Amino acid sequence: MSKDVWKRDEVQSPCIQICVVHPEARICTGCYRSIDEITRWSKMTNEERASLLEQLPARASDLTKRRGGRSARLKRR
Q1: How far is C-alpha 26 from the chain's CA centre?
Q2: Does residue 31 contact residue 13 with C-beta atoms inside 8 Å?
Q3: Residue 56 in contact with residue 27, Cβ under 8 Å?
Q4: Is the dihedral of CA 25, 28, 30, 31 positive or negative?
Q5: Around Cβ 14, how many Cβ atoms within 10 Å?
Q6: CA 19 distance to own-chain centroid
Q7: Angstrom distance (rounded) from CA 60 to CA 40
Q8: pLDDT, tens digit (0-9, with 9 covering 90-100), for 10-55
Q9: pLDDT for res 64
Q10: Is the pLDDT of residue 70 over 70?
C-alpha cells in the first residue's frame, strides 16, 4: 500500500511519538506543544498550525535538561 494515499494537503502534526508532559513547563517533551494545543490540533486551521509550528522551537529552552530525557529517546530511534 502506498503511503501517498494518506497524505493530505494540510500542515502535519509535529508529533514524534515521544509523548511525555514536562511536569513544570506543562508541554510535551517530544513536540513542545501544550496539552490544549495537542487536543485542538485537528480543529485548527492551516494558518493556526503554521503559526504554532513557528513558536515551538523557542519552547525547547523552557524544558529543564534531565538525564535520559528527549535527546536520549531520540538517539534510540
Answers
A1: 13
A2: yes
A3: no
A4: negative
A5: 18
A6: 8
A7: 21
A8: 788 999 998 999 888 889 999 999 999 999 999 999 999 999 999 9
A9: 61
A10: no
List the grid coordinates of 10.
494540510
Residue from 53, 5, 56 nearest 27 by CA: 56
Q: What is the spatial distance between Cα 77 and Cα 66, in angstroms, rounded to a whole number?
A: 18
Question: What gap in Å lies between CA 3 and CA 12, rounded to an integer?
Answer: 14
Torsion of the alpha carbons at 26, 32, 34 and 37, rounded to the nearest 10: 180
| The model's pTM | 0.69
Size of the chain, expressed as the number of residues it contains: 77
Burial status of residue 32 (CB atoms within 10 A of its CB: 0-12, 13-18, 19 or more): buried
